[in-house]
Amino acid sequence: MERKRAAMELDGVIGGDDDSEGATDLFRVIGSQLRLLRERAGLTQREVGDRLGYSEDLIRSLERGRRTPQPEFLDAADDLLEAGGLLRATKEEVARAKARARVKHPAWFKDYAELERKAVELNFFSTLTIPGLLQTEAYARTTFMSRQPPLNEATIEQRATARLARQEILTTWPSPMVSTVIDESVLRRAVGGHDVRQGQLKHLQHLSRLRSTTIQVLPMACEDHTALEGPFILLTPKGRQQVGYVEVQSVNRLITDAEEVRILAARYGSIRGQALSPHKSLALIEELLGER
Q1: Are 146 and 90 part of one and the same domain?
Q2: Which of 78, 100, 122 is the last residue of a domain?
Q3: How many Å from the N-terminal Cα to the C-terminal Cα in the chain?
Q4: What predicted TM-score, i.e. pTM, was given to this entire model?
Q5: Sheet of 243-248: strands edge to edge?
């Protein structure tokens, strides 16, 4: 039995399929209710997002049952859409479903995902794609669909759902302090096409206004930035020392050596100093959106 359990863990399938599927079904039902109430109120997804302080992409994902609806969202949406307590009444069941279900991550990613879930601080330096924690659903799916050799549809669905579920730490309380430096070329690259790129830029615009999230852009005009060796992540789990994480060409490494982590932290500090300020970074994002 123990041998079978270990094999299941390596395959990334442990955690109770029935519980996971039950939670997914519940979130889909709540999403359908949300969509019907929104349409009854004559509002678009963007209008609901604007009035509640969420992105259009988040509202879309919630209606599809791909995100876990948070208690504060259910309260606010119930009031806005005049649901008469219909959405608010689901909070306890959502909490139970969330506790029962476990998100499935690839075996090689589980250690990082667990540390990220417990992190009090996260720092990203990204040169190829938007950090997974900040991606829209459409952008995330594009990254998985673009893989070579191709992933099958079930794997794409599983990994996209797991990536979106990780993002709950941005809106739960207490949320970790998140800072990210994104190379300007990443923002200009039309991953998934114009609409996907525009949706991603709008999502970054929304995230940049969260008190716990700081987004900076490293301009392409920077001639001598100090991290030409590639992207990396620094995270600090609660009550533990800071660690690093690198992932490139299917090679993944969690860095715990104190000296290696110190070097990455020094590089990140230097990169932040070379990047545009958060205010100027937001202005660039809005310029790319055509809003300035």
Answers
A1: no
A2: 100
A3: 61
A4: 0.69
A5: 213-218, 177-183, 119-126, 232-237, 243-248, 251-255
